[in-house]
Specification:
heterotrimer, A mainly alpha (163), B alpha+beta (328), C mainly alpha (622), A: 163 residues, mainly alpha, Cytochrome Bc1 Complex, Chain D, domain 2, elongated, C: 622 residues, two-stranded antiparallel ribbon, 2 strands, 65% helix, 2% strand, globular
Chain lengths: 163, 328, 622
């Protein structure tokens, strides 16, 4: 039946396993979720035009951002990217920049012509979640990209079902 | 045998069950009927199981006798008889089950009290529809019902599948988005009953509870009338400042307080928050300390829930709590 | 006693023809059913240990109220992984492995009919499991339950790749199950020993046959279901989106249409194991062969008509639900008949008290209790109180562990001498069984109480004032005993592998054909294929007649008629080949890659064409 482990093949197996663990151990950035937002990110958004989105490409931030986009009524002016009172967020170019820092500042500071300032009203991590979400509203996003939030909402509470 | 000891132990905890939480501590005809059915099934299947175990024990330990054709014949007849008896018993249980099922799901007449329950991740929206619609009462996580009257619950959900369950009163019914369901309650005694969500719905399924209070009809009517009123006016300067804090913070984006212009509909309605016994979906008592802790960092208490932390300055927090505690 | 010269010559020629390569390459190209069956069993137990660690973590978290060892995100992943691992990666594969190993031996043939296809099945299973655990290690384990109800499992509420991993491993595990099912069904129908008519095949073979037919019907259902969820999540369909005309209950129906037969697929082979053990240790045939076979078939049929009992709380019409109550109650009858027949078997005999028999006794006790609670759950009003509570957790573990794991452990104890040529330690066997039995009851019996007291399942913690603290603590302590039992079993196996007493050909004096060859069997199974004239060939009292005339210089098996086992013709079966391994790698890369980008799927399919062509056109010469 099984032969006793030869020492060399066992060492090789251990190294292989270690290599694998090192590769996946740090965790897939896309799948990380932090449920207990610690104090710094819970403080109200204050900073001006930061450079990096700490939630870049994070799937949970995308769907949370989608939820918050509704809950803070962003869709009231921007619809679901199609615009209305506010400019469409599916457009290719934005007046004040599509970089994460620019979007962050738009939300925190507000902009002329009607974009309100959310300073003091929204914790910082929620601003970043919304930033992560609106970056996915690009109309050119290809269908082969990995699963993320959907434009059509998967819940019947937002409208009558077709039956 | 170990098995027999376990059977005896099985009965013991049921006789010493704690009040209010057990499916065996019944407070309605439906729950009683279900419990009786449970005892019937338990005894019938218990007797059959013990008989099989006894037969097995005898078979394992009896002295061996010579094989005979008559012995084979006897055994064949015994197996056939056992199969026929089991079938008959199962048919009996089937009949009992179907009859009980019909009894606990009788349609209710027009006099039933209608309550709409909408499930959210991870709290319960409770609506008492009325005519005119402006009299509709909206509250959260606490349901009051009058004793002695049928209550028809209309269940739906805005996000994922939840399940409504008050063990003392009846079985459970799922809340399915896009597919409204109905459930019947008929409490026959007053009491405070615990309910909970019974379908895995995400991070805080474990803490999605609610309280159901069955009270005398006149007390219920009083409660309903008081819930209909808009929010109470703040009684002192601190509470007034607290109202300002509410209206100028993120609270107003999600929570509603009728009468002061707060129309958020994503989170529990707070108009009569102070009249409720618990907060956080029956997680914490509704007193100053827990309420303050909840406002500042509900994520620490109920990680993953949709309410963000609110790091308010101490004075603002105290005044806000003082205002909210006045919303009777 | 030295063998005659002709026997030595034949043995040497057979060994050369059926030779298995050595080393890593040998392992990759092997197509021997025993090698692959053994691999299934060992890999399945590897996953069992992983699933057991997940279970220990769950019980550690639930030992005290408001415990903070696991946050809800990690807990959701762990309990999902526990269910997925145990159901898809342990319970079914271990039965497949036992069937693959023993069915050809029991029916008296040299190998299964599709050796290379079978190899693909195993590699698929292994790659699926490795992929799932790699993703779990990367914080991407599925977290919406092993049953993944939508909308929780939809892309809106389960974002990222977590549930996608679950969807993909369904393909891996269920395709491998289908492959094994095809192999075993054809083996049983077409490759039996001459004289082994259908009413002479062992009950274990009947159980595997019926279970594999269930696989053919159930696994495609779940592949379809998971594929539907996959398309909803990745390419934008709305099958389960009520806002766009889809239906949430569609998921539940199609999943449970697979999910309920799945547990019978797991359970039926266990019933076969019990029959094998009992007939050997009672030294008589199992009582009522025809009734036993009909009971197996009835269980399989009824098993497909029960699924709605998982959905009683969804508000379906009462009459419909009552039909499923009736079916759920009625399925107790065939299983009951089997139990009565087993008692009758023991009644007319003098049993020998060895560990395998004690596993059978443990099965009786535990499965009867699981059956009791099952009858309660079959009743709609009763179910509506205990559905989705710890009562169900208690029930399902009683029937799955009591009804499947204990028989498997008993079967492994029974067949260990045959598979390895060594005897397991009797003393350690008794001790491990004792710890397992006591630990199991201590862990799972209190759960019935917790369910009645209102504790729902799939909760990461509970509030301290509900009255659930004591029994949760007892249950968690019980897992320690259970774990000790498992460890003792493992120690027994490992020690006996190297230091156990050498096993003779038929240490238990059993009657079926696998005991008619050496321990462990040679690659070619039998020196000469036996001919049988009864259900218990080794108890016929004389030397078994054998088949002569089969070629020794090529891999030949005897094909016989489906009903009577009359010899029909000789067929050459393929030998070792690397192409199954290569093809399974390319397909796996395609399936796994499709989680991250949909275009990997067609790419994987295209890249699998060359190995498939090579597979078809090449033949390893022995």
């Amino acid at each position: 039946m099984c032969s006793p482990f030869r020492s060399l093949s066992r060492l090789r197996d251990v190294l292989l396993l270690g290599g694998v663990l090192l590769t996946v151990g740090p965790g897939c950035q896309r799948s990380n979720r932090t449920l207990l937002e610690t104090a710094p990110m819970s403080a109200k958004a204050e900073r001006d035009r930061p450079a990096r989105n700490p939630y870049e490409d994070n799937a949970y931030a995308m769907t949370e951002g989608q939820r918050l986009y509704e809950w803070y009524n962003c869709s009231g002016c921007h619809a679901r990217g199609g615009g209305g009172i506010g400019p469409p967020l599916m457009a290719k170019t934005w007046r004040y920049g599509k970089d994460p820092g620019g979007i962050y500042t738009s939300i925190v500071e507000g902009r002329p012509n009607g974009m309100p300032s959310w300073r003091g009203k929204m914790p910082e991590y929620q601003v970043w979640q919304i930033v992560t979400y609106v970056q996915t509203l690009d109309a050119d996003r290809s269908i082969a990209s990995p699963p993320g939030p959907r434009e059509e909402h998967m819940q019947a509470g937002e409208g009558a079902s077709s039956r | 045998m170990r098995r027999t000891a376990w059977s005896a132990a099985l009965l013991l905890p049921f006789t010493a069950c704690r009040a209010s939480y057990s499916a065996l501590d019944t407070a309605s005809p439906e729950a009683t009927r279900i419990t009786n059915l449970h005892w019937l099934i338990l005894w019938v299947t218990g007797v059959v199981s013990l008989a099989v175990i006894a037969a097995l024990a005898i078979a394992l330990t009896r002295r061996r006798t010579a094989e005979t054709r008559a012995g084979e014949g006897r055994r064949a007849r015994a197996v056939a008889a056992a199969a026929i008896v089991s079938t008959a018993l199962l048919l009996w249980l089937l009949t009992a089950s179907v009859l009980a099922g019909r009894a606990v799901a009788t349609p209710v007449g027009p006099g039933a009290l209608r309550i709409q329950i909408v499930g959210h991740q991870w709290w319960w929206e409770v609506r008492y529809p009325a005519d005119p619609p402006s009299d509709t009462v909206i509250t959260a996580n606490e349901i009051h019902v009058p004793v002695g009257r049928a209550v028809l619950l209309e269940l739906s959900s805005t996000d994922v599948i939840h399940s409504f369950w008050v063990p003392n009163l009846n079985g459970k019914k799922d809340l399915i988005p896009g597919r409204p369901t109905r459930h019947l309650l008929r409490p026959e005694r007053t009491g405070v009953f615990e309910g909970r969500c019974a379908e895995f719905c995400g991070y805080q399924h474990a803490h999605m509870g609610f309280v159901l209070i069955a009270e005398e009809p006149d007390r219920f009517a009083t409660w309903l009338a008081s819930e209909r009123r808009p929010a109470s006016e703040p009684i002192d300067a601190a509470a007034r400042h607290g109202r300002e804090v509410f209206l100028s913070s993120a609270c107003v984006s999600c929570h509603a307080i009728r009468g002061i212009g707060a129309f958020g509909h994503k989170a529990p309605d707070l108009t009569h928050l102070a009249s409720r016994r618990t907060i956080g979906s029956a997680m914490l008592p509704n007193t100053d300390g827990p309420l303050a802790g909840w406002i500042v960092n509900s994520q620490h208490i109920k990680p993953g829930n949709h309410m963000p932390p609110n790091l308010l300055p101490a004075d603002d927090l105290l005044d806000l709590v003082s205002y909210l505690r006045g919303l009777r | 006693m030295s063998a005659p010269a002709w026997e030595e010559k034949e043995r040497a020629e057979l060994a050369r023809t059926w030779h298995e390569r050595e080393g890593i390459l040998g392992r990759i190209v092997s197509v021997d059913h025993k090698t692959i069956g053994r691999r299934y069993i060992i890999t399945a137990f590897g996953f069992f240990f992983l699933g057991g660690i997940e279970a220990l973590l769950i019980r550690l978290q639930l030992a005290v109220p408001e415990n903070r060892i696991l946050n809800p995100d990690l807990y959701n992943q762990i309990f999902t992984m526990h269910g997925t691992t145990m159901m898809f990666f342990f319970a079914v594969p271990v039965m497949l492995g036992l069937g693959l190993y023993f069915v050809p031996l029991m029916v008296g043939t040299r190998n299964i009919p599709f050796p290379r296809l079978n190899a693909v099945g195993y590699w698929f299973y292994l790659f699926g499991g490795v992929y799932l655990y790699l993703q779990f290690l990367g914080n991407g384990g599925p977290d919406a339950g092993w049953f993944d109800y939508v909308p929780l499992a939809s892309s809106q509420y389960s974002t990222g790749h977590r549930v996608d991993a679950w969807v993909q491993i369904i393909n891996f595990t269920e395709i491998s199950a289908l492959i094994v099912a095809a192999s075993i069904i054809v083996t049983v129908f077409k490759q039996r020993a001459p004289g082994m008519s259908l009413n002479r095949i062992p009950l274990f073979v009947w159980a595997m046959l019926v279970s594999m037919v269930m696989v053919i019907f159930a696994m495609p259902a779940v592949i379809f279901t998971a594929g539907s969820l996959n398309s909803d999540r990745t390419i934008g369909t709305h099958l389960f989106n009520p806002a766009e005309g889809g239906d949430l209950l569609l998921w539940q129906h199609t999943f449970w249409f697979f999910g309920h037969p799945e547990v019978y697929i797991i359970f039926l082979p266990a019933l076969g194991i019990i029959s094998s053990i009992l007939s050997a240790f009672c030294r008589r045939e199992v009582f009522g062969y025809t009734a036993m076979v009909l009971a197996l078939v009835a269980t399989a049929f009824l098993g497909f008509s029960l699924w709605v009992h998982h959905m009683f709380a969804t508000g379906l019409p009462q009459i419909g639900e009552s039909f499923f109550t009736a079916a759920s109650l009625m399925i107790a009858i065939p299983t009951g008949v089997q139990m009565f027949c087993w008692v009758a078997t023991i009644w007319g005999s003098r049993p020998r008290w060895e560990p395998p028999l004690l596993y059978v006794v443990a099965f009786f006790l535990l499965f009867l209790l699981g059956g009791m609670t099952g009858v309660m759950l079959a009743s709609v009003p009763m179910d509506l109180q205990v559905h989705d509570t710890f009562f169900v957790v208690g029930h399902l573990h009683y029937v799955l562990i009591g009804g499947a794991l204990f028989p498997v452990l008993g079967g492994l104890t029974f067949w260990f001498p045959k598979m390895t040529g060594r005897m397991l330690s009797r003393r350690l066997g008794f001790w491990s069984l004792g710890f397992l039995f006591v630990g199991f009851n201590m862990t799972f019996f209190p759960m019935h109480e917790l369910g009645f007291h209102g504790m729902p399942r799939r909760v990461y913690t509970y509030l301290p004032d509900k009255g659930w603290n004591f029994w949760n603590l007892v249950s968690s302590i019980g897992t320690v005993l259970l774990a000790i039992g498992v460890v003792l079993f493992l120690v027994n196996v490992l020690r006996s592998l190297y230091r156990g007493a050498r096993a003779p050909q038929n240490p238990w004096g059993a009657e079926t054909l696998e005991w008619a060859t050496e321990s462990p069997p040679p690659v070619y199974n039998f020196l000469r294929l036996p001919v049988v004239a009864s259900r218990s060939p080794l108890w016929e009292g004389k030397e078994l007649p054998v088949v002569t005339g089969l070629a020794l210089d090529r891999r030949e098996v005897l094909v016989t008629g489906a009903l009577d086992g009359a010899p029909s013709h000789r067929e050459e079966v393929p030998g070792p080949s690397p192409w199954p391994f290569v093809a399974s790698i390319t397909m796996s890369v395609g399936l796994i890659g499709s989680v991250f980008n949909v275009w990997w799927l067609p790419a994987g399919f295209v890249v699998s064409i060359p190995p498939a062509v090579a597979w078809y056109f090449t033949e390893e010469k022995p």
